[in-house]
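Notes from the 1:1 (GR / supervisor)

We went over the backlog. Supervisor wanted to see one worked example end to end before approving the batch request, so GR pasted a single chain during the call. The sequence is below; no edits were made to it. Supervisor asked that the structure be written out right there so they could see what the output format looks like.
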Amino acid sequence: MSAPPPPYQNHPPQQPYGYPQPQPGPQQPPRGPQRQGQQTHPVQALFAVLIVLAIFGGGAWYVYDYNTNPNGGKAKEQAAVDAQNEKNKKHEPKAGDCVKVQDPKGDPLPTIVDCGSPEAEYKTGDTLYGAAMECGAKFDYGIQYSNHPGGDYTLCFTKV
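Structure output shown during the call:
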């Protein structure tokens, strides 16, 4: 039997298949961006602070003005709500109120008027709550409201 040949003297032993082969030369770790030595200039820092203060200051001023200005913001919203409520009151008669009915045969809209005025056509007599309620014989006219936020009801009127 013969002996195996001696290993080559100038070659390192091989790694098994699939392992990375060592690279010749010195290995250096990978380098990412480094910020050492970089400083922010004082003017840049001051500028950034001023921008942040301006944004927050402007927002604070807007909120303050919105809530306190008597001619804008919240005051305008409240005035619009008050005006709508007044308009609704004008068209939501209570018992004893005199009304003029606009479009009585189509989509009737009762408007409260002074009982002594020539516009007064009917006097509100009763409010019947529930769906499809009918006014009794003592009433001359009725308006039914369905799918109303306050529920279904019927207003009953007598001639003035």
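Supervisor's comment: The helical segments are 42-68, 74-90.
Batch request approved.
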